[in-house]
Design brief:
homodimer; alpha/beta; Metallo-beta-lactamase, Chain A; 2 domains; seven-stranded mixed β-sheet; 16 strands
Chain lengths: 305, 305
């Protein structure tokens, strides 16, 4: 089960009624914040999922609207009781440590340690957050920007009838279920002997500040939920989308459709667009079930059975 | 005339219904922001006095709740149309350039130039913002923190009857009124000959993150409005006020009374105090007309006649 909530949906600058684009992910008691522009900590507090358990902050790129809230958030997490035995990971593109440490000129003393992790966007480069496997992919923006994908793999179902056939004592079932072989009747019983076929897990993608690319479509293939920037609603803003390396509603919808995303949320709306709903039809024409993001829009990704 | 508006009243961290302590000052078409924690730009936008005309940002000290909003605000001022011929001054304690430039790692490119001005808190150290004269005074906090005072001096009234006695042509009146001597009947006429007695000007003080001191009382003597921190309302928090180098309501009120401030506003409330009004009586017992600050509380300081 993965809980997801949009902390904000704005691009460029915070507005009185729109926080900057940011996503909160919760899994197994851990909280992960993806991007934190100015004011993200206020939206986090409003949502009420807590602050102390934020153990990972992912940064997509170094534009202020995606990272300016970092020093304040780090201080607030400290004020919420995170301690010296609870390190916090800050993950981002090359240079993340330099940029974050520069911002920490006003937050030099924190009660917990910080660990930095640069990601390259290379497909073999993964980072584990509990059971979640994180990967990154380079977007196409005017500076290095990473798209992120979380995958939660699911163990095959345990088949009691197979275990009974072998005659395995019940206390050994759990060990095999967890994927560890056990010794029984002078031989090693492999998990595969008592487990069913592979089952699909859960996945979540986050994309911002990018043009659409074939690589991104591949990266996000079959995600359960794709949260993507959709900066411009008006098709007439297509030239702006190209110039500023963003996407229109139609482009973001096409990306979601091409990746076969099961759910598609839009975020990172230009401040020049007070009512994204006005342009909804341009997205729905391409991806009928699209959801235009709003503050604290939430969803729980869970297994169908 | 000086317009003043509180942009926020919170200390330590921004809350869903409370922006961080910050003051906006307007005089002669110029806007001055005093402190800018995370979210100040949102409060500024809500107030609606504009962003482009912010030509000076004063920073009291380098705690995040007073400066974390700086890079975002600088970018937003740029987006509002401030251009290359409109430099913006950032004024603060020693080190302001180093700290601000470190934060500018995420706002390196601005369309207008930035000028830094360090203030020492020495009484002879002044900075002019149009007609306003700014001075600073060291507070007593756990790091260098400046209190600020703005003074607008008022020219003595022109006395037409005196000018007529001398026989001065009317076109010379304005020159003398502005303080410049003129030559008439083979002698220099001094402004004093046609001007009335000195008149009091307007003044405004801002104090945050400090214990009360005798020096601060002197610094703020006779201000028309003193905006001061009053972090703790509950008299039982007096030990906290001492430990954390802040003030209680009673202490802030006593400071305002001792300085003979004509108006007194409180700000910088601890996030642990959701309703400052509950403790109002402890301030009113010492300074009856005290005003507990709230977002966008505004006032115009003007001459009585």
């Amino acid at each position: 089960m993965i809980d997801v909530s949009l902390l904000g949906t704005g691009g460029t600058l915070p507005l009185p009624d729109r926080f900057l684009s940011s996503l909160l992910v919760r899994h197994g008691g851990r909280l992960i914040v993806v991007d934190c522009g100015e004011g993200t900590q206020v939206s986090l507090r409003r949502l009420g999922w807590g602050l102390k358990d934020i153990g990972t902050i992912l940064i997509t790129h170094f534009h202020a609207d995606h990272i300016a809230g970092l020093p304040g958030l780090l201080l607030t997490i400290g004020n919420s009781g995170r301690g010296s035995d609870e390190p916090l990971s800050i993950v981002g593109p090359r240079g993340i440590q330099r940029v974050a440490e520069s911002l920490r000129v006003i937050a030099p003393h924190l009660p917990y340690p910080i660990r930095y992790r640069e990601m390259t966007g290379d497909s073999v480069d993964t980072f584990e957050i509990g059971d979640l496997k994180l990967r990154a992919c380079l977007g196409e923006h005017d500076l290095t920007c990473l798209a992120y994908r979380f995958d939660l793999s699911r163990a095959p179902a345990f088949q009691p009838e197979l275990a009974k056939e072998i005659g395995l004592p019940v206390q050994m079932w759990r060990v095999l279920q967890k994927g560890t072989p056990v010794e029984f009747n002078n031989r090693m019983v492999q998990p595969e002997e008592v487990l069913g076929p592979p089952r699909p897990g859960l996945s979540l993608g986050f994309l911002t500040d990018s043009r659409p690319t074939r690589k991104l479509v591949e990266f996000f293939t079959d995600v359960d939920l794709l949260v993507t920037e959709a900066t411009y609603g008006d098709p007439e803003d297509q030239p702006k989308a190209i110039d500023n390396k963003h996407m229109t509603f139609a482009e973001s919808a096409a990306l979601g459709a091409a990746a076969r995303a099961k759910n598609l949320w839009f975020t990172h709306f230009t401040p020049a667009m007070p009512n994204p709903d006005y342009f909804r039809k341009h997205a729905e024409a391409v991806y009928p079930g699209v959801v235009l993001g709003r503050e604290h829009l939430s969803m729980t990704l869970s297994y169908p059975d």
